[in-house]
Amino acid sequence: MGFNWEIVGKGGLQFFGTISASISHDIKNVLAVLNENAGLIEDLVLMAEKGASFNHERVKSLASSIKKQIQRADRIAKNMNRFAHSVDESLSNIDVCDTLELIVALSGRLADMRGVKLEPLYTTERIHITTNHFLLENLLWRCLDFAMTAVMEEKTVGIIVEKIEKGVQIKFTKLEGLIEGRTNRFPSEQENELIRALEAKIETDSRTGIIILKLPEKIGS
Amino acid sequence: MKTRILLVDDEEEFVQALSERLKIRDYDVTTSLTGEDAIEKVKHYNFDVVILDVLMPRMDGIEALKKIKRIKPLTEVIMLTGNATVETAIEGMKLGANDYLMKPCETEDLVLKINRAYDKKTEHEDRIREAKVKEIMSSPRAALKE
């Protein structure tokens, strides 16, 4: 099935840039916490050297906070690495839940900024499909991005992965905004090109407020 | 009197450690984890300087800055940004922020900027006071009527 590489490529580059900027922001935040914790330990030591009592408990809690931030930075770096490697091959066999988990993690900051909660429900069995990993990440991101704008009072996007015959479907639920009639700008030209490239299908149910993304077991077969 | 600071950032551990460090340096520090809470505090207390994170959930720093400047125009605001770009901080300065700092920041830089912002605020307040005195001196009857 033909699709416009120029549109997909341009959008993909923008997506890569957006995710990289978000990751760099998260890293900066971790560095800022580490910087202040280290600075505070330094301050407490200097004060103790000048005769003030040394607050052991506070220093212990700062050390524990530093450890926690290092674990956080490690998670960010691991996600960044997984994301960077998704462009390695144009076709690969991937675990859909793993990919979705990564995109949900990478969307965390954007969701927080919008005050939206993401509620993924993964299957217990592993579902593998053969597809273009990076383009799938891009499409999932775009679906989530739109879904976050279509939430109403509950401010929650439900995400459900289900195995279907010859493929997998991902449902984005609780989108009350769809019922209000905001569906006209989704899927856009960009999403339609990604859908074509991934041989996928998108169904928007404005009656129940659900978007269903259907992906084939293998593209190009 | 100690300089009254409001520190606003959604990173709780950052806020906690930095506020302790500023208190050690003899500042009077209040903290907020959201833009909404910061606005409420600005409405009820007089802060000299607000240190405001640019990117926060729901109400971002730019929106909070606009509200702070509307409620307390003389309160000085220093923007904190985690981004590698200065564009948002520059936008903040166009909207009345006194200065900006990149995260992670050097404490001495922050202290310098806080003191500069405080000086600017007190100078501004002094000029307003002088203008009021001049007004009273030139027209004492009108001042009495007021």
User: How many separate domains make up the residues of chain B?
Assistant: 1
Helix count of chain B?
6
State the name of the first-level CATH class of the largest domain in chain A: Alpha Beta
What number is the mean pLDDT of chain B?
91
Please report the number of helical segments of chain A.
Answer: 7
CATH architecture of the largest domain in chain A: 2-Layer Sandwich
Q: If you consult CATH, what is the topology of chain B?
A: Rossmann fold
Biggest pleated sheet of chain A? 5 strands, mixed
Largest sheet of chain B: 5 strands, parallel
What proportion strand of chain B? 15-25%
| Beginning-to-end CA distance, first to last residue of chain B | 30 Å
The run of helices and strands of chain A is HHEHHEEHEEHHEE
Query: Which segments of chain B are poorly predicted (pLDDT under 50) over 5 or more consecutive residues?
Result: none
**Rg of chain B:** 17 Å
Greatest interface: A-B, 24 and 21 residues
Elements of chain B, N to C (H/E): EHEHEHEHEHH
How many beta-strand segments of chain A? 7
Give unreliable regions of chain A as ranges.
none
Task: Determine Rg of chain A (CA atoms, Å).
Answer: 22 Å
Alpha-beta content class of chain B: alpha/beta
Can you walk through the features of this model?
- The complex is a heterodimer of chains A (221) and B (146).
- Chain A has 221 residues and is an alpha+beta fold.
- In chain A, 56% of the residues lie in helices and 19% in strands.
- Chain A folds into 2 domains: 5-85; 92-216, Heat Shock Protein 90.
- Chain A has a 5-stranded mixed sheet.
- Chain A is elongated and about 75 Å long.
- Chain A starts with a helix and ends in a 5-residue tail after the last strand.
- The mean pLDDT of chain A is 92.
- By secondary structure, chain B is of the alpha/beta class.
- Chain B has one domain (4-120): 3-Layer(aba) Sandwich (Rossmann fold), CATH 3.40.50.
- In chain B, strands 2-1-3-4-5 form a 5-stranded parallel sheet, sandwiched between helices.
- In chain B, helix 2 runs parallel beside helix 3.
- The model of chain B has no long low-confidence stretch (mean pLDDT 91).
- At the A-B interface, helix 1, helix 2 and helix 4 of A face helix 1 of B.
